[in-house]
Amino acid sequence: xxxxxxxxxxxxxxxxxxxxxxxxxxxxxxxxxxxxxxxxxxxxxxxxxxxxxxxxxxxxxxxxxxxxxxxxxxxxxxxxxxxxxxxxxxxxxxxxxxxxxxxxxxxxxxxxxxxxxxxxxxxxxxxxxxxxxxxxxxxxxxxxxxxxxxxxxxxxxxxxxxxxxxxxxxx
Length: 171
What we know:
mainly alpha; about 0% strand; Four Helix Bundle (Hemerythrin (Met), subunit A); disordered C terminus
């Protein structure tokens, strides 16, 4: 069987919403970085290097820990890659600790910059992760029969907060 020409494959990937989410996520990370260095209209807010560094370090530790826990299951796509469901490490208490860790890093960047525009970009990223996780959890429920029970006992972004309700478990 011959492989599809590259331009056709790329168009198919871009039409697929899950890769659109990955592209939008990358754009939002870029927006956080750019707004941190560009001048903000209307001035800046107070900054704290100590709080900024603490948030970035805690977030980075979270990314490393969750990446290690996920192993082969790690993918930027909201669609599981078939490597299995992970409920160990931070995933024992939260369904999406990687997103929480990434939000902490970006919040640390905003605190360090003091730019209100950077805080807006971080808020947009947090809102995006909420939307992405709704799609992702639908895929996870389909792929893993035990996911609904896991979601019912595990917080979404923080331990104990955002457990799935019975109505979302019954699909």
